[in-house]
């Protein structure tokens, strides 16, 4: 049974929704100064300095020069003063090159003690670079263990073959990838919201051919088909990336039939000339620019999730009278699916197997999971960057100040706790996204709040399944099997991508050729290993049911509802 988001803090535990946007404020002790940051003493143990630890942090290129560097700024200084260590050293990894940089660091024996990231961790487990978190080591992380004990889904996610190698967290289900559509174009052309794949193609054709912007020029496209959009469409047919598996007739199967239908449909889109013909060269920026400039009708993207209200603001600046809406991905014969979904149980890090002090690494993870520490690193000092209003919604105090001092700091709290009561029923304030926007005095943010509210409604439907999520519990592969999978996956993906732009190559022939590439790389051995593992461990692996239990019906708070245009 789905629950409702509640806005009354006294009746719910406080849970952050995403990195750097929403979390709670807890009762704090008297703040004190720490370098350029206002610090709060978190627990008596925080003052006991013992040992050293190195920690990974992303470089997203967002930090202003006035703030310093990603390894030396107001937030790292607060950590240095408050963490129970003689030294916390930050190993900076470029976000756009994270897997390559991490591989180089670990190969050189320079990997950080604690890795906090959003990358695929199975290669590091396969290579023996992730430390097993034994019961003895877990006992030294009581804050984290409370969360782990509370959520069986997190236990499943972080345990493979009976062993733990990763640390994780649980957060409320919220939008990531979404289908965003020009509602004003639908109205102008008297078109219904697409509900089937055929509808989607028909609307895209109309947006391309019937001059929806009314400028008398043939300069619009129906939808985007960059890498993000291809992933959304693959989800429509029930498979994710990079794992193209699904449970079919009780077996874990590489879903060639779904891939073929996806390819056939996507080639229809290309052949209908409703997408930019240079889509293969687009890494994402061109699609975003074209959509922002009002030249694309359907945007299949992750650019509106979490902190991407600036994307909406830029769109509205270029298209002040335009209206956006969202919709469920059309159902196919394989079922009803959605794009990537944020939230639920997620792996967020691991301990380097080569660390000289496993206890120190465990203590750092435990410290990050202290509710007061998580609160500070997500929200900052009380009232400086965020505050709670009378309904319990987190609101930004000064956007200009945040842009300089706060927005770059999201990744210091990748490993954290969302459950600040640790014992109450799940009732997170995920509604702070849309409610906080709707409470703004800015009409553009209010409009974005309505759009985000609708996206939250889509992903929190019980039947909305992200076909990628459950695959997080697939086991790590031995090095020889991993090599077969890596080579085979690259060969298949590269071939299928090229097949999209070859009008004379049928989907049937393309998939037949891709199968041979997979077989030649040894992919059938990977298939056999995964299915054998599934047969032996299916009761211990994540399922769609695990995510249904974490879904909550979005709810507008009274003051937000006053500004909502949704009837």
3D structure, described in words:
The protein has 22 helices and 19 strands. The strands form eight sheets. The protein has a four-stranded mixed sheet with strand order 11-14-10-15. Strands 6-16-9 form a three-stranded antiparallel sheet. The chain has a two-stranded parallel ribbon with strand order 1-19. β12 (245-248) and β13 (251-254) form a beta hairpin. Residues 1-46 and 420-430 have low confidence and may be disordered.
**What is the 3D form?**
globular
- Low-confidence regions: 1-46, 420-430
Largest sheet: 4 strands, mixed
Strand order of the largest sheet: 11-14-10-15
The Rg value, from CA coordinates, equals: 24 Å
Helical proportion, percent range: 25-40%
Brief overview, please?
The chain is an alpha+beta fold. 38% of the residues lie in helices and 15% in strands.
Topology:
Blueprint: E1 3-4, E2 32-34, E3 37-39, E4 52-59, H1 74-82, E5 87-94, H2 98-107, E6 114-116, H3 122-126, H4 135-138, H5 142-150, H6 152-158, E7 159-160, E8 163-164, E9 167-175, E10 178-182, H7 183-188, H8 197-209, E11 221-223, H9 227-236, E12 245-248, E13 251-254, H10 256-271, H11 285-292, E14 296-301, H12 309-318, E15 324-326, E16 341-351, H13 358-368, H14 371-379, E17 386-388, E18 394-396, H15 399-405, H16 432-438, H17 443-459, H18 479-500, H19 507-520, H20 523-537, H21 544-548, E19 552-553, H22 558-561
Parallel strand pairs: 1-19, 4-5, 11-14
Antiparallel strand pairs: 2-3, 6-16, 7-8, 9-16, 10-14, 10-15, 12-13, 17-18
Helix pairs in contact: 9-10, 10-19, 16-17, 18-19
Keywords: Signal
Signal peptide: 1-23
InterPro entries: Bact_solute-bd_prot1 (IPR050490)
């Amino acid at each position: 049974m789905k629950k409702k988001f509640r806005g009354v803090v006294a009746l719910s535990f406080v849970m952050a929704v995403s990195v750097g946007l929403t979390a709670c404020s807890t009762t704090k002790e008297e703040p004190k100064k720490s370098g350029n940051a206002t610090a709060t003493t978190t627990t008596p143990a925080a003052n006991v300095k013992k040992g050293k630890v190195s920690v990974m942090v992303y470089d997203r290129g967002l930090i202003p020069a006035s703030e310093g560097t990603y390894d030396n700024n107001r937030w790292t200084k607060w950590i240095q003063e408050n963490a129970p260590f003689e030294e916390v050293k930050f190993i900076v990894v470029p976000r756009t090159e994270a897997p390559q940089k991490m591989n180089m660091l670990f190969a050189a024996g320079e990997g950080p003690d604690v890795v906090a990231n959003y990358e695929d961790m199975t290669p590091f487990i396969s290579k023996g670079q992730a430390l097993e978190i034994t019961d003895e080591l877990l006992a030294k992380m009581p804050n984290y263990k409370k969360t782990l004990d509370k959520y069986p889904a997190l236990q499943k996610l972080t345990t493979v073959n009976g062993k733990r190698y990763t640390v994780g967290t649980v957060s409320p289900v919220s939008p990531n990838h979404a289908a965003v559509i020009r509602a004003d174009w639908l109205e102008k052309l008297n078109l219904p919201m697409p509900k089937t794949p055929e509808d989607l193609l028909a609307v895209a054709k109309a947006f391309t051919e019937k001059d929806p912007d009314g400028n008398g020029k043939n300069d619009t496209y129906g939808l985007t088909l960059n890498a993000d959009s291809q992933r959304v469409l693959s989800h429509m047919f029930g498979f994710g990336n990079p794992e193209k598996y699904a449970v079919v007739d009780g077996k874990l199967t590489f879903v060639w039939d779904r891939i073929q239908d996806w390819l056939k449909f996507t080639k229809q889109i290309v052949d209908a000339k409703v997408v930019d013909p240079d889509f293969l060269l687009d890494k994402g920026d061109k699609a975003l620019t074209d959509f922002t400039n009002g030249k694309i009708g359907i945007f299949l993207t992750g650019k509106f999730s979490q902190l991407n209200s600036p994307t909406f603001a830029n769109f509205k600046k270029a298209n002040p009278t335009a209206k956006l809406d969202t919709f469920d991905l059309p159902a196919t014969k394989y079922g009803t699916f959605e794009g990537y979904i944020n939230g639920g149980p997620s792996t967020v890090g691991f301990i380097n197997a080569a660390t000289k002090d496993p206890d120190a690494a465990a203590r750092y993870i435990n410290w990050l999971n202290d509710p007061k520490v998580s609160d500070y690193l997500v929200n900052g000092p009380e009232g400086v960057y965020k505050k709670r209003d009378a309904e319990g919604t987190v609101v930004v105090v000064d956007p200009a100040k945040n842009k300089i001092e706060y927005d770059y700091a999201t990744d210091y709290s990748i490993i954290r706790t969302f459950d600040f009561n640790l014992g109450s029923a799940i009732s997170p304030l995920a509604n702070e996204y849309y409610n906080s926007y709707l409470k703004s005095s800015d009409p553009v943010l209010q409009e974005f709040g309505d759009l985000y509210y609708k996206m939250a409604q889509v992903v929190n439907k019980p039947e909305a399944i992200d076909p990628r999520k459950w695959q997080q519990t697939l086991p790590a592969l031995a090095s020889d099997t991993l090599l077969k999978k890596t080579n085979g996956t690259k060969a298949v993906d590269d071939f299928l991508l090229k097949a999209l732009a070859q009008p004379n190559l049928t989907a049937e022939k393309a998939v037949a050729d891709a199968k041979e590439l997979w077989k030649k790389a040894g992919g059938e051995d990977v298939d056999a290993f995964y299915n054998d593992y599934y047969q032996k461990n299916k009761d211990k692996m994540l399922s769609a049911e695990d995510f249904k239990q974490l879904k909550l019906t979005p709810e507008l708070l009274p003051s937000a509802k006053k500004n909502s245009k949704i009837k």
